[in-house]
Design a protein that fits this description.
The chain is an all-beta fold. The protein is 2% helix and 47% strand. The chain folds into 3 domains: 105 residues, Immunoglobulin-like (Sandwich), CATH 2.60.40; 114 residues, no CATH class; 227 residues, no CATH class. The chain contains 2 helices and 37 strands. The two termini are 29 Å apart.
């Protein structure tokens, strides 16, 4: 109901600067917002107002250990409004996304890959590709990559073909069926183009560095999937000319030096360097999936020189070559009843146009430090944090983020397997803010959670950098 107001009690909310305010003055004002989203397709960019008509919209205003709430309404024309919101900072709720802001006019427009009417396939959707000229198949090493800009499809399906490929195979037959269930449907009649590529594995002359390179590509004409049905395609994989080169002095040791700041017990840390073709990266920034061109995975954690590494780009104009350097770790949790852990993946990354990220590559941003929940070190397991705890942090030791996002994961058990499911995100782009409180309705008594706190640089000024840290387990 528009304009309704409630005072919701907060639990253990001490420590948030945004909360150290008196009960707000109720001489309030309207918050108005909009979103006209851009969709990058194979034909052209398409814009469409976002439908907010069935989205939960609200304002949560911190006030003296509690929250004042205001309900909003959204429409199908891409607009929403929340009446009578007190002045100052508040948490804007859009579904399960919460944004700390003081703005009264809010633009939530985004850029997305794929048509706005893309749909997912039913479980029994399949496709067959009777194609020749495979590079002799290396079972367990090579990959089969499927990418469509219009359908926003990016997946590897070498493990989803039946009967499977075996080492030495140089063709696929019409009797080998790929499982496409649960993936976005490709529609040639709507302009989608499917790229089917073979990613070939090799090892550099040093004998230890793994490299995966797109070497073959097949682009079926008018590929049209039917949900629940089978789609046939046939043709020849063509060679991708390895006519481009890339060099960089990759300071891996500086990435690995950040492991100790990525969460309690961070383990199984690994890194990679990747060149990919991302649609409209130069025009819109880092916003969606990209097609792998070449990936380098050294062993150990020593610095590594990428020297005139050859690769090819089979994708047309409008696909920009993007370089990414990333290191990620595992932080494991064992929910009640689980024998196998749930895992969060804190990471440090740098990403930008390959023409911009070369020379010496170092991390540009480190995780936030000294993370606390209600004033207590968040690297330990915490109980009794309440339903609206406050998360505080100190700035990164490296770089200046423009946004902090607290991702709240609910830890559960499926059989004996621990799982981590994203429950909500709470974020701020206010530079002076070093705390966020969890608004009411996210945490539940009797459940356990873990947070992944991500610092990020601006999404429209490459190169882009992210760095995240995981917390220990917390329970209300």
């Amino acid at each position: 109901m528009a304009g309704s107001s409630d005072m919701v009690s907060g639990d253990d909310m001490a420590g948030g600067d945004d909360l150290a305010t008196p009960v707000p003055d109720m001489s309030d004002s309207l918050v108005a917002g909009s979103a006209v989203d851009t969709y990058v397709t194979d034909a052209a960019d398409v814009t469409k107002p976002r439908d907010f008509s069935s989205t939960i919209i609200a304002a949560w205003v911190p006030a003296n250990g509690a929250f004042v709430s205001r309900s909003g309404t959204g429409s199908t024309n891409g607009t929403f409004s929340i009446p009578a919101v007190p002045a100052g900072n508040f948490y804007l709720q859009i579904g399960t996304r919460y944004i700390l802001t003081a703005s009264r006019m809010i633009d939530l427009s985004t850029v997305n890959l794929g048509r706005p009417d893309v749909v997912r396939s039913m479980a029994n959707t399949t496709a067959t590709f009777a194609v020749t000229n495979l590079s002799p198949w290396q079972d367990g090493d090579d990959g089969l990559q499927f990418f469509s800009r219009g359908a926003n499809l990016y997946t590897y399906l070498e493990g989803a073909v039946n009967p499977p490929l075996i080492t030495g195979d140089v063709a696929l037959s019409s009797s080998q069926s790929f499982y496409f269930g649960g993936l976005n449907l490709v529609s040639g009649s709507k302009g989608d183009i499917l790229y089917f590529s073979q990613v070939v594995h090799s090892i550099l002359p040093d004998g230890t560095t793994n490299v995966d390179t797109t070497k073959k590509v097949f682009v079926p004409t008018g590929f049209e999937e039917t949900s629940g049905g089978n789609t046939d395609a046939s043709g020849t994989l063509t060679d991708v000319a390895q006519a481009l080169t890339y060099s960089a002095a990759w300071k891996r040791s500086q990435f690995f030096a950040l492991v100790g700041s990525m969460g309690p017990g961070a383990t199984s840390c690994a890194d990679s360097a990747n060149l990919a073709a991302q649609p409209a990266f130069a025009a819109h920034g880092d916003f969606g999936n990209s097609a792998d061109l070449i990936t380098v995975r050294p062993t150990g954690n020593s610095d590594f020189a990428i020297q005139t590494l050859a690769y090819g780009n089979p994708y047309p104009t409008g696909f920009d070559v993007v370089a990414s350097f990333a290191m990620s770790c595992n932080v494991n949790y064992l929910p009640t009843g689980a024998t196998s852990p749930a895992t969060l993946f804190p990471s440090v990354s740098v990403r930008g146009l390959a023409t911009m990220i070369n020379g010496t590559v170092v991390p540009l941003l480190s995780p936030v430090t000294a993370v606390k929940i209600n004033g207590v070190d968040a690297a330990t397991s915490l109980s009794g944090v309440g339903l609206t705890p406050t998360v505080t942090w100190l700035p990164p030791t490296l770089g200046s983020p423009s946004k902090i996002v607290v991702k709240i994961y609910k830890l559960t058990t499926s059989g004996t397997q621990g799982t981590a499911k994203l429950a909500a995100t709470v974020e701020t782009g206010i530079a002076a803010v070093a705390s966020l409180s969890v608004p009411p309705g996210i945490l539940e008594q009797g459940s356990s959670y873990a947070l992944l706190i991500e610092a990020a640089t601006g999404s429209n000024s490459p190169p882009f950098a992210t760095a995240s840290v995981a917390t220990g387990t917390l329970t209300p």
